[in-house]
Design brief:
5-stranded antiparallel beta sheet, 2 domains, DNA-binding, phosphoprotein, 250 residues, 15 strands, LytTR_DNA-bd_dom, 30% strand, OB fold (Dihydrolipoamide Acetyltransferase, E2P), Rossmann fold, single chain, WalR-like, alpha/beta
Length: 250
């Protein structure tokens, strides 16, 4: 009897893990998911103990990123890197046994990936060191935001990122709020996210990113939806279902 193909999913955002698991269940129903991890250290431990045939690894995770997990793993596996940023989708991903998926993951792209993975089974030992070093050398470092040039009417203002408590989409602009006032920029939230410290800023809704340290309280409304209050602001922000997992411990 042929043993089933096994896989590890390592992705720090629960909605993305759930979506990928569901897509794989439809496209590769005989694939057995042996574990799902939300950080790189757990992923490496599971890889060592479970020895999966396939590893889906988010490039950026707490503890260890996907590149380091693949580098340190000792058992063979087909590797698929997952990334939200186009700059990671370089030619080195197409070399050898390495594949990649861009977020949000498209079904047509995953179909291609599954076909390639199936054609390569069983997995063989791959020395990722040189390939990953080459890949890492091509990755463009993301320049984190320090100062924001925003407008208040006809006046330009320089706002330090340490003073920002909220980025919020409003029509064609993004509101940049501090504890005392607001200004506006044209940069959309999707372009801001890669340039913000993920430990300092959380997306709580498709139209809002908040500074974690500015959160005053989080509580449900009468309909069970989570609301976030920030220091210096009287009106709460609604937390969408896709991001409420961030507040489970609260």
């Amino acid at each position: 009897m042929i043993a089933p193909t096994t896989a590890l999913i390592a992705e720090d955002e629960e909605p993305q893990r759930t979506e990928l698991r569901g897509m794989l269940a439809r496209l590769w129903p005989e694939l057995v998911i042996v574990a799902e991890c939300d950080n790189g250290i757990s992923a490496l431990d599971v890889w060592t103990s479970e020895k999966p045939d396939v590893a889906f690894l988010d490039i950026r995770m707490p503890g260890l990123g996907g590149l380091e997990v693949a580098r340190q793993a000792v058992s063979p596996a087909q590797v698929v890197f997952i990334t939200a940023h186009d700059e990671f989708a370089v030619k080195a991903f197409d070399a050898g046994a390495i594949d990649y998926l861009l977020k949000p993951i498209r079904s047509d792209r995953l179909i291609e990936t599954v076909a390639r993975l199936r054609s390569r089974q069983p997995a063989t030992q791959v020395d990722f060191t040189a390939l990953i070093d080459s890949l890492a050398g091509r990755l463009k470092p993301v320049e984190m935001i320090t100062w924001i040039t925003a407008s208040i009417g006809d006046t330009l203002r320089m706002i330090h990122i340490g003073d920002v408590i909220l980025f919020q989409s409003e029509d064609k602009y993004t509101r940049v709020a501090t504890a005392t006032d607001s200004a506006y920029i044209r940069t959309p939230l999707k372009d801001l996210i890669p340039k913000l410290d993920p430990e300092a800023f959380w997306r709580v809704h498709r139209n809002a990113i908040v500074r974690v340290s500015a959160i005053r309280q989080v509580k449900p409304d009468g309909d069970g939806r989570l609301l976030v209050w920030l220091h210096g602001m009287t009106e709460p922000l609604r937390v969408s279902d896709a991001f409420r997992h961030r507040f489970r411990a609260m």
